[in-house]
Design goal:
Blueprint: H1 3-12, H2 20-29, H3 31-46, E1 48-49, H4 59-65, E2 76-77, E3 80-81, H5 87-104, E4 108-110, H6 116-127, E5 133-137, H7 153-157, E6 159-163, H8 174-184, E7 188-192, H9 202-212, E8 215-219, H10 224-228, E9 241-245, E10 256-260, H11 263-277, H12 283-296, H13 299-321, E11 325-326, E12 335-339, H14 347-356, E13 359-360, E14 362-364, E15 378-382, H15 384-389, H16 393-427
Parallel strand pairs: 1-13, 5-6, 5-7, 7-8, 8-9
Antiparallel strand pairs: 2-3, 4-10, 9-10, 11-12, 12-15, 14-15
This protein binds pyridoxal-5'-phosphate.
Residues 53, 115-117, 120, 144, 146, 192-194, 219, 221-222, 245, 256 line the site of pyridoxal-5'-phosphate.
Amino acid sequence: MDIILSLFFLGLNGMYDKEIKMLEKLKESDEEIFNLVKKEMEKEQESINLIASENIASFGVRSAVGSIFVNRYAEGCVGNRFFGGCENIDRVEELAIKRAKKLFKCSYVNVQAYSGSCANLAVYFALLKPGDSVLGLSLNAGGHITHGSPYNISGELYNFIPYGLDEKTELIDYFELRRLAKEKKPKMIVAGASAYPRIIDFEKIYKIAREVGAYLMVDIAHIAGLICAGLYPSPFGFCDVVTATTNKTLRGPRSGLILCDDYEIAKKIDKALFPGLQGGPFIGTIAGVAVCFKEALTKEFREYQENIIKNSKRLAKELMDRGIKLISNGTDIHFSLIDLRKFKITGQEMQKRLESINIIVNKNTVLNDEERPSITSGIRVGTPLITTRGFKENDMEEIAKCIYMVLEDFEGNRERCLEIVKNLVLKYPILNF
Ligand code: PLP
C-alpha cells in the first residue's frame, strides 16, 4: 500500500473516527485484539464487499451492542424475569418489540433469538415433533442449511423433503411444490432462502399449505429490510410464522427475530426459545436491534433500500451484458447468483481470485451443481454493504467490468482491476454514521 493510501486507511480522513478513543482503551487491555480490529477496519476500507448477508451497522447500533448491557442476565421475558433488577432491560426489550411490530406490521414479536438459525430451530421445536415431515427449499436451489440440510440438526430431527426450481426458468416450481405437498402431507412448509434472487410468492405457498393442513413458516433473513421498506411483498397475512435475521438488509447487529399474528403460536414460540433452546438473551444485542429498528423506520432507510435494489439490478444487467450467466437471468432483490460453469471455473477459485483484487464475495451452490458445497460452481454478489458506503448505479459497471476481466484473463487484467477497485474504495470511504 502506498503511503497516502495507508494514511487514509488509518483513519485520518474520518474513518470510524468516533471509535478511536474506545480503541485506545482496548489497546491498553489487549494489544493483539486491538491490532486485529484495526486491521479489519483497514480491510473493510480497502475492499469492495459484495457479500449479500453483510452490511455496515451504524455507530449507534454498535455502541448499544457493546454497552453496559453486556454485563447483565435476564432469563425470561418482559415483566417476568428469573433475575431481579431488570427494569432497564425490560424497557430495552419493550422498545425493540414495539418498534418491530410497527416496522413489520404484526402482533407478536420475540427479539431474543441469538441468530437466524436459533430462530428457525425454535419455530421447529415449538410446532413440530421429531420425525414430522417438512418441505424446505433445497440447498442447491438457494435454501438455507437450517431448512433441512442433512448436515444440520433440522435435517437430523425432522423429515425434510426438498422442493426446488423449474429447470428452465430457474424459478421456484410451485406446481411441483403443490404436488409434493399433496403427496407427502407435511406438517410444515418452509419458504424463504439464502440464495434465491427472485420474489417468492408467499400467497401461493400459503394456499398450498392450507390445502394440506400444514403450517407455513417464512424465513425472511435476507429480505427483512426490503420488506420493511415495502419493496418486497410482506408475508404477513399469508403465513403462520416469520423468522428473520437483523444484520443483512436490515443493517442491525447479528441477531434473530420470530414474528407472528397468532397468540397461541406466539406462546408456544416464547416457550420453545426459552427455556426450550436458549438461556439468557443478549441484552446488548437487543439494544442494538432496537436502535436498528428506529433507523429502519425512517424515510432515509426506505431510500437506502431502494438504492440497494437499483444497484443490484444494474450490477445484474452489466454482468449479463458481458455474457455472464445469472441464475434466473436476473434479480428482483439485493443480490444475483452467478453461474460460472460456462467459464470452467469453480466458485471457490473465483472467490479466491476476486479476493486477490480486493473484491469480497462468497462461493455459492447453483442449480444442479456437481461441485461439493465447499467448492461450488457459483458466486453470490450483493449490494447492501456497498450501497451503505454510497456506491451508485454507474459504479456497478466498474465492478461488473472487474468480474468479467477476472474471468476473461485473470493474470493479464489483475493490475488494472486492482486500480479500479482502489479508485472506487477511495471514492466511497466508510464513514461512521
Ligand atoms: N435463514 C436464512 C435464509 C439465512 O440466509 C441465514 C443466514 O445466512 C440464516 C437463516 C441463519 O442466520 P444466522 O447465520 O444468523 O444463524
